[in-house]
Amino acid sequence: MPSMKNILLICLIAGFSAACTYKPTILQGNALEQDTISQIKPGMPRAEVISILGSPLMQDDFTTNRWDYLYYSIERDQRSQQKNLSIYFSDGIVSKVSQE
Q1: Residues 12-24 as b or e (16 or more Cβ within 10 Å = b)
Q2: DSSP label at residue 7
């Protein structure tokens, strides 16, 4: 039969382990920092955009003149953040940058 000391120890361990749950920050998509977004200017070729931001998360086969970069994060305290960046091209050159 377990002693009262052992039962108390088990309860303490269970209580402390329940209080120490880890909630990671969840990141999805391309990380879109304002300093890197501001580097994208009209007149840049596609290859230079890829070297700065990486490959776009979404490329539509029907709209080849637009690349969409999406970023979504959920913080530990359940705050969520979403950023959208669309880059429009004309003949392989950036013509417009739209940020939401």
Answers
A1: eeeeeeeeeeeee
A2: H
